[in-house]
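User: Design a sequence. Structure:
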């Protein structure tokens, strides 16, 4: 079982975004309550760049959400002042706040890691380096080492870091996705005791809407097999939440067999099982991506 970090309270959402800009608490609190009831373990509060009025908006948002739920919160914005403002008013209930995220660049680590110790919070360590998104597992490992070194210098234990490998779209970066998967297999040994997370839906970016769910669901099964401890996903998607919470173990075990190198015979399987097998093969790079992979 892994933690569900619900991504729904987002400035880009028409429903909650308008409420944030207008400081209308009702829609935001309604969703926070529903997401809690549907099994979210944490809530991601995403303000985006928050260039205008970011600190005030983040403080208001944290306080608004914490009035109706005790779940820990990811504070998600590239505006460092807004992150600190949110941390100033955050109340520890079921867990510490989490800064989402700190890039593996010298300037962002120097700017934001002091907040982790100052406010006794956790952080997402994003494998985004000086040259952008890493190309493979080896480049991710180099960034990881750099971030662990800097974290140690700031007195931040590995248990306080949620490493994010940066999931890339299988539709346009199928080969690069293998580097993300391999890195996640390495992570428990490279950073023992750390946590991990990812923006799960990135894997299906660029794919037709009707195919995105199956990609997200199967890749979550793969990441769970790699040892991931949480994922940022749609908290209203009951199917993906079930997988996160170990309620689809037959499908998860089926993907695990492919993960372990078994040539799975699909004869006699249901359509959903066959779709999972085909999609797992695609995500492992055993078949080339096309929008029609399920029909082949």
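Assistant: Done.
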């Amino acid at each position: 079982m892994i933690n569900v970090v619900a991504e729904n309270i987002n400035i880009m959402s028409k429903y909650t975004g308008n409420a944030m800009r207008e400081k209308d608490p009702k829609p935001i609190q309604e969703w926070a309550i529903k997401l809690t009831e549907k099994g979210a373990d944490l809530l991601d509060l995403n303000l985006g760049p928050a260039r205008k009025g970011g600190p005030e908006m983040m403080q208001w948002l944290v306080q608004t959400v914490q009035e109706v739920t005790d779940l820990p919160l990811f504070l998600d914005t590239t505006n460092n002042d807004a992150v600190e403002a949110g941390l100033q008013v955050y109340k520890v209930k079921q867990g510490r706040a989490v800064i989402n995220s700190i890039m593996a660049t010298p300037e962002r680590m120097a700017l934001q890691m002091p907040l982790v110790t100052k406010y006794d919070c956790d952080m997402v360590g994003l494998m985004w380096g000086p040259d952008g998104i890493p190309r493979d597992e080896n480049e991710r490992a180099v960034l990881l080492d750099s971030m662990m070194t800097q974290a140690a210098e700031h007195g931040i234990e590995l248990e306080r870091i949620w490493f994010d490998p940066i999931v890339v779209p299988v539709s346009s970066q199928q080969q690069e996705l293998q580097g993300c998967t391999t890195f996640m297999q390495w992570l428990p040994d490279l950073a023992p005791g750390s946590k991990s997370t990812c923006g799960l839906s990135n894997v299906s970016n660029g794919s037709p809407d009707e195919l995105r769910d199956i990609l997200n669901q199967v890749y979550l099964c793969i990441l769970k097999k790699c040892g991931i401890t949480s994922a940022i996903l749609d908290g209203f998607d009951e199917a993906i939440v079930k997988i996160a919470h170990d309620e689809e173990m037959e499908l998860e075990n089926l993907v695990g067999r492919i993960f372990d190198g078994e040539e799975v015979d699909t004869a006699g399987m249901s359509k959903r099982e066959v779709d999972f097998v085909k999609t797992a093969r695609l995500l492992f790079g055993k078949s080339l991506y096309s929008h029609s992979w399920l029909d082949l």
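The chain is about 50% helix and 10% strand. The first helix runs from residue 14 to 22.
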